[in-house]
Design brief:
It is built from six helices and five strands. It has 146 residues and is α/β, with parallel strands linked by helices. It has one domain: Sugar-phosphate isomerase, RpiB/LacA/LacB (Ribose 5-phosphate Isomerase B, Chain: A, 3-Layer(aba) Sandwich). It has a five-stranded parallel beta sheet with strand order 2-1-3-5-4, sandwiched between helices. Strand 1, helix 1 and strand 2 form a beta-alpha-beta unit.
């Protein structure tokens, strides 16, 4: 498995922890930045990740202060189902019902322990398909083509 990760300046430290977790699970990590706490524009990083996920069919994790901004940007792209999660249940349902391919997290709103639990749950949960597939197909037709 390969996971793309990207963040803004507010989540640089969080990303470092996320990368450690992913590598401990023997997941290949593609870091799309930023690696600095200098102010950057989150739409640039969220767009870069959304494009890579849409092209590759792999999954991604986006991080900013609240997770809101990066989720808004990522969901502008066709083929992206970015879920802003604040609980393990959010993460589980985002995979089971929505087949989320991008997990959005907020460094200022969740603890590292909560984030680790959400990531593990998100990675370990499979899409249920069935009645949810039609809805995911409808979603997949929306947004900016890549």
């Amino acid at each position: 498995m390969k996971i793309f990760v990207a963040n803004d300046h507010a989540a640089t430290e969080l990303k470092e922890e996320v990368v450690k977790l992913l590598k401990s699970r023997e997941i290949e990590v593609i870091n799309l930045g930023t690696d600095s706490s200098d102010s950057v524009h989150y739409p640039e990083y969220a767009s870069k990740l959304a494009l890579e996920v849409a092209k590759s069919g792999e999954r991604g994790i986006l991080m900013c202060g609240s997770g809101i901004g990066v989720s808004i940007v990522a969901n502008k792209y066709q083929g992206i189902r970015a879920a802003l999660c604040k609980t393990e249940e959010d993460a589980r349902l985002s995979r089971q019902h929505n087949n989320a391919n991008v997990l959005c997290l907020g460094s200022r709103v969740s603890t590292i322990e909560e984030i680790r639990a959400m990531i593990n749950c998100w990675l370990d949960t499979e899409f249920e398909g069935g009645r949810h597939q039609l809805r995911v197909d409808m979603i997949s037709k929306l947004g900016t083509k890549v």
